[in-house]
Design goal:
Elements lengths: L2 H16 L4 H19 L4 E12 L4 E6 L3 E8 L1 H9 L3 E5 L6 E6 L12 E6 L2 E8 L1
Amino acid sequence: MSPMNHGHGHKNKKHHFALFDNMSYKLVSLFIAFVLWISILGRRDFVATQEVEINFVSSSGYSILSQSNDRVKIKISGQQPLMKKYKDKIQVINVDVTDKEPGVYDIDIMASRFELPAGLKILNIRPNSIKFEIIKK
């Protein structure tokens, strides 16, 4: 038998045992890979709708006679733990209209009015504008 053939047969035998070498390291690596895989699966963004009260703040001597809506619905997206924390808080948005004279106004409800934690974003606001009327007291 030539040395080349003899070496080839020995390599197969060594290769077979290499699979079981450092088994504890391989099991730990497999466990770490599994944990990472599960954590990445859990990072899907969830979408939820939150109802938010709109409160107009007028200057003294004036009052809000009427407003087309006193609540808006915002659709938010983000990770579930953040979403749960945010949704558990009752949200009220104060809209400062102290610079307005008596009359009828239409105000846009912008996403920038909402204080969202990092990681959450607003997808939609309905209605996105509210009509209101200011009168003298």
